[in-house]
């Protein structure tokens, strides 16, 4: 979909390469063993593991690689800032070190990259069928691009365009300060500040963020919480339950309206900071499940709502990434191309 940093000339001249690719998040860890040769990618094995039930990534990789051919490279996307091959995950009590993983797995080339950076590299592996356009911009987009991804947390990344190729880079933009726009926003900010201290966009634009908004509307705005809704939330994923019952519950309806508005505003902020005229991609696990809500709650109106820069935002095409394996494909792409 996008021409990325690694061109065909520096990919896999030696033929097939086996790459262990991973996508590590607070909720689950996805692993895959890929056989790669240029753009031909074959998954030999894929599996996922509940992250919280393991003490380290090597516990998972040891189980995954049983009876599998030995990989020649490994790249893992992780939810947190990576420094010199080391990372302390933001929402998971793991420390990861690429050198230690390399020694444990007996693999010379092991890379840790931010999960949104991995998603950015994964764009090179996608086709138009893997995304859906929710805001049509210019017919001939050019320039930098950006990714925002609400899930267990809020990830953000940029892609610098040099005129020919895109160069992905990680950010921790999801942890920047939430900005209020009206009285309800201020009240919500105060509610979250009393609860958490620092109020970042991740406190609202994420799975836990949906539940934060829900609790605010219930406790401070006194919207009615039906008994059947409490029962459903107690059974599992609160954010998923809330998003599925917008027609049955005014509380859920208002929660998701605010969630979409905040996502639109922060998406616009990201585009303006990156000057991402080449497009914005919305990743993560939430957006593909709630696509009709983007129209219902007028995402586009809230996205193009930045005063004197509205003319720029109108030109930016916004796509939701449908392929749930994008980050893992990006990790494989990175591992093979290095």
Rg, Å, rounded: 20 Å
Q: Give the strand line-up of the largest sheet.
A: 9-14-13-10-11-12
SSE order in H/E notation?
Answer: EEEHEEEEHEHEEEEHHHHHEHHHEH
Mean pLDDT equals 92
> How many beta strands in the DSSP annotation?
14
Sum up the overall morphology in one term. globular
Major sheet size, sense and barrel closure: 6 strands, mixed
Helix content: 25-40%
Give the assembly state of these chains: single chain
Low-confidence runs (pLDDT<50, min 5 residues)? Answer: 6-13
Proportion in β-strands: 15-25%
Number of helices, counting only DSSP H or I runs of 4 residues or more:
12
SS content category: alpha/beta
Please describe what this structure looks like.
By secondary structure, the chain is of the alpha/beta class. 36% of the residues lie in helices and 24% in strands. It has twelve helices and 14 strands. It has helices spanning 57-64, 98-105, 115-122, 183-196, 207-219, 227-235, 238-244, 250-274, 291-296, 299-303, 310-314, 326-337, and strands spanning 17-24, 28-37, 40-50, 73-78, 82-83, 86-88, 95-97, 109-114, 131-135, 145-150, 154-161, 166-170, 280-282, 318-321. Strands 9-14-13-10-11-12 form a six-stranded mixed sheet, with helices on both faces. Strands 3-2-1-4-8 form a five-stranded mixed sheet, sandwiched between helices. Helix 3 packs across helix 12 (326-337). It is globular.
